[in-house]
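Hey L., structure's done. Input below.
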Amino acid sequence: MSGQILEPGQIEAAANIPPFLHLPEPDLFSRRARRLHSLAVDHPLAAYLLLMAKLCEAQQRVLDAPPTLPGPSAEALARSFEHRMPPLAFDTLVRGDAWQPALDALLAEIKADGNPSVRAAVAGLREADSGRRKAWAIALLGGQFDLLPAALVPFLGAALQVAFSHWLLALPSERLVETSSQTLCPACGSPPVAGMLRHRGKYAGLRYLSCSLCACEWHHVRVKCSHCESSKHLAYLSLEREGVAPERSVIRAETCPSCQSYLKQCYLEFDDQADAVADDLASLDLDMRLSEEGHLRRAPNLLLAPGSSD
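Output:
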């Protein structure tokens, strides 16, 4: 047997390297649905949160029994791993047809329950041809929300999340490594929806950015802008909640004066059930306040089109 012998100092350094990834559990959408149900209690947007909870439950049913969703070929994966590129690069995969069976399966699971808006959105996606769906998906993942009907966003976004999470969970996680950009998902290249401040085990005290598309989480040092990577004069803002001191808020926004952007952070030590997507949807009042103060939101939430919660 051969191998490199590590000196004591090298062993110590290796032991202090934080885990790069925190991958989602196979029941990630069920967990998100439960969180949305919890957050909906006495919430002014309860109806919307409960609708999204039902959508997440449908996502989980599709993920548990997925249609055929052919991912990248072995050769394509090998090239990505060799060149340290995201193996599930969304800008490539979304232009193919492999994700569309996830949309069909999800639409079959959605019950409109007398909701005309949901019924119309489902019908619009069901009746659209492959090319139209693809154009909408490219626009959605590219952040061009004005190029597709706002009512379609949660359902199309949910289907894309199912497909990419399915592919992520099938990847050999040990092959996922840091790419040239620490601000984008190393698995699919998408931006984060929020940061997760973890508090248990080997992840304690570390921040992980949560992918808006595939739900992969990757380590990103704290007190460093997740957009421009500046560390200068970052501030952490939260809204006062009844009975909760600001310093114990589950959700805070990390604001950066260098690029004028912000990213919400979930502090799991104050609620270990917090979910990046769900808690983001339940804290849109914080987005409104930050917008009024001139901060820019760059983090997409694929279950929400800008302005569609009104």
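Strands lie at 21-22, 192-197, 207-211, 217-219, 235-237, 251-255, 261-267, 296-297. The domain at 27-175 is CATH 3.90.1670.10 (FdhE-like fold).

-- N.
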